[in-house]
Amino acid sequence: MDQLKQYWVAQRLDKDLGDPLTPENVMSFKQVVAIDEKEEFPHSEIEWLYNWKLQHYYVPAECGGEFTSFEEFLAFVRVLCRRDQTIGIAFTTLFWSFITWMAGTDEQKQKLAQFIKDENGAMCLGYSEREHGSDLVGGDLTAKKVPGGYILNGEKWPINRATISGISYILAKTDPEGGPKCLTLFMVDKRELNPDNYYNLPKILTHGIRASDMSGIGFKDCFVPDSMRIKEEGDGLEFALKGFQVTRTFCAAFSLGAADTALRTTLNFALNRVVYGKKVIDIPQPRKILVDAFLDILICDCETIGAARGFHVIPEQFSVWASVTKYFVTTQLETMINSVYTVLGSRFYMRDEHDYGIFQKVLRDNSIISMFDGSTVVNLHALILQFRQLTKYRARRKPEAIAKLQKRLETIFSLAKQVPQFEPEKLELFGRGVDDPLQGLEIALQQLEALKETSDVDEDVLVNLMGLGNLILEELNDHDELITNSKFEYGHDQSPELFEIAKKYCILHAATCCLQMWLYNRTILGEFFAKGEWLVLSLHRLLRMIRPLPYSISDAYVANTAEELLKLCKEDKLFSIVPFQLAQSQITEDRPHATSKLQLKA
Ligand SMILES: Cc1cc2nc3c(=O)[nH]c(=O)nc-3n(C[C@H](O)[C@H](O)[C@H](O)COP(=O)(O)OP(=O)(O)OC[C@H]3O[C@@H](n4cnc5c(N)ncnc54)[C@H](O)[C@@H]3O)c2cc1C
To answer: Are 266 and 359 in contact (CB under 8 A)?
Structure first.
């Protein structure tokens, strides 16, 4: 596992930030909870990250930065968000720079790279409007063409970092009659505007991420030069949607970080709290909830790490994969956090009783992730519109296409393989019906079958995997039949039933990603991963969401998974399929959650 260089930056960042349970450390739980209470923007913590030079990892190597892969990016955003989503999200608005890396001129790229690297610059995304929410085409902010530039009028709201950022990506209407070509995107550099012609809207008070700069920005007869326009007039919606493919996928990193903390802080409690003469962890029901939570993280890892690598191999398929990841991972982990609170008991609702009250903050902060950057319904809707083509394409797969697909799957899912450089110009608004992970399911099933000949996988595990794998295939075939026989309409009036069908598609997608991840990494991700018991439990867990199955598949597998969870907790390792080393606890005997007191169940 140490050979996986893409995890080194995250590991180093976490080590340098130190144990979050040590109050004096930067971004310790005590500090981030205090920042949240004050509702003041975390300037000094953000500055710490700039001094650490984290911003360089948001700038592609060809623009003089250190960004090399989305897999690496996912890992460090995750460790940032395990401490604090507010700071993680505030810093990661830098990621909107992808619009410029994707569609900007060389001059715009150079300017932005310098702004980020040398001037500690930050940006925000101004798409939403008070009156129009998800309806981007319905927006009212206008840009009227004048010699040398445009005149902006209107407001964007609610916008994260609208006030405390130098660059705003603004989506503006340039042609009210232009249909899908009515919008144009601008990279507005506030430093070059007349300050009399733009203004910031007041801070919005929110349930979570309270210390954020949640505000808005308004323009009044504000001149912006042509040099701030991204690509051509009318191209705004296209690049907005392509940019979303990148950023929506990486919202999963925010959720994964929060999920780690929710589970870890609850474990700290369950390992020490004694009721009825027993530790909570030794009572079957809470232990099962914690194991299920761990499985949820592993499942979401397979979906998200697969997607992060997939961007480098099949960017043209992300109109599908980004929607699946944004919907599935954020909602699955939101539900997971909501179920582990039952184990934490009343302390989940208290603001300073356990681990400095980090759980209640995680619960509040995390609940926005499935909403912003394209809400749950928006992502499911985007998927629904592609179902017909997905189904047609799958029915027509030819042997040559399947052989090529197999090669792509290996590059996507083998973590030891280097991914090619990301080519954003290959992003497409519609994926033409291709979805490699699910359309490669039969290949995965053949690979499972072939494992029967090798002796290194437990026979029981293999039998279970074959059985569950075939159920996934059965469900996928049923899905395709249903779509083929349904009446299809474009537009926004999709039936509620189709939204349920889309949710089911996402579950099948996640299940297949788990299978693919295991098949390609059995020899490199450690003994627990290799054994595959977690995979049997994960597939069973996912399939139980969509069809009746027995409650339990193996108590022994659950016990072994609980043991692994406790081992990772004791060793301060990330709850993940790549459980790299986190900052180590500084044990003091009087600390109730001290790791020296943790007992592994025999
Ligand atoms: C904390 C926070 C941070 C944010 N940060 C930003 C930011 O940085 N930049 C930015 O531009 N915006 C930002 N937003 C705005 C956010 O993206 C919008 O709130 C979101 O797009 C939803 O818009 P809305 O709340 O106006 O709901 P609307 O879009 O008005 O939705 C209203 C209703 O219609 C339903 N609906 C919408 N679309 C569909 C569909 N296709 N099919 C079926 N039903 C549908 C919804 O479910 C909902 O019930 C932020 C919001 C918050 C709360």
So the answer is: yes
Q: Which of 570, 571, 577 is nearest to 530 (CA)?
A: 577
Q: Is the confidence at residue 513, as pLDDT, over 80?
A: yes
The single residue listed with the structure tokens 């597998």 is 557
User: To 10 degrees, what angle do helices 284-313 and 236-270 make?
Assistant: 150
160 lines ligand 1 (CB under 6 A): yes
**What single-letter amino acid sits at 8?**
W
**Residues present in the chain in total:** 602
Q: What letter represents residue 250's amino acid?
A: F
Residue type at 477 in one-letter notation? N
**Residue 216 bridge partners (DSSP):** 201
> How far apart (Å, rounded) are the C-alpha atoms in residues 388 and 188?
39
DSSP state string for 50-83: HHTTGGGGGSBGGGTS-B--HHHHHHHHHHHHHH
- CA distances from residue 363 to 35, 119, 254, 262, 492 in whole angstroms, order as listed: 16, 34, 12, 8, 31
Number of neighbours of residue 78 by Cβ within 10 angstroms: 26
Helices (H), 485-589: 496-521, 526-531, 533-544, 555-570
Distances 300 to 28, 169, 247, 267 between C-alpha atoms, Å: 26, 30, 17, 20
**Position 50 confidence tier, pLDDT thresholds 50, 70, 90:** very high
The Cα 114–Cα 51 span in angstroms is: 15
Specify the 3-state DSSP secondary structure of 298.
helix
Distance CA 439, CA 195 (A): 53
CA of 532 to the centre of ligand 1 (A): 39
**512 C-alpha vs ligand 1 centroid, how far in Å?**
30
If you average pLDDT over residues 331-338, what whole number do you get?
A: 98
Q: Measured in angstroms, how far is the CA atom of residue 501 from the centroid of ligand 1?
A: 22
- Amino acid in the structure at residue 530: A
Rounded Cα distance between 120 and 59, Å, is 12
pTM above 0.85, yes or no: yes
Is the CB–ligand 1 distance for residue 128 below 6 Å?
A: yes
Phi, psi of 416 (to 5 degrees): -80, -15
The angle, 0 to 180 degrees and rounded to 10, between the axes of the packed helices 459-484 and 533-544 is: 30
Q: What is the pLDDT of residues 470-511, one digit of tens each?
A: 999 999 999 999 999 998 778 888 999 999 999 999 999 999
Report the alpha-carbon angle 159-234-387, nearest 5.
Answer: 80
Which of 123, 205, 372, 494 for a ligand 1 pocket mutation test, highest count of atoms within 8 Å of Cβ? 372
Look at residues 329, 317, 139, 330 and name the one whose alpha carbon lies nearest to residue 245.
317
Sign of the C-alpha dihedral computed for residues 17, 99, 125 and 239 taken in this order: negative
* Segment (H or E) for 184: strand 183-189
Per DSSP, the residues of 500-530 read HHHHHHHHHHHHHHHHHHHHHHTTTSHHHHH
User: Would you call 156 helix, strand, or coil by DSSP?
Assistant: strand
Inform me whether the pLDDT recorded for 602 exceeds 60: no
Separation of CA 24 and ligand 1 centre (Å): 38
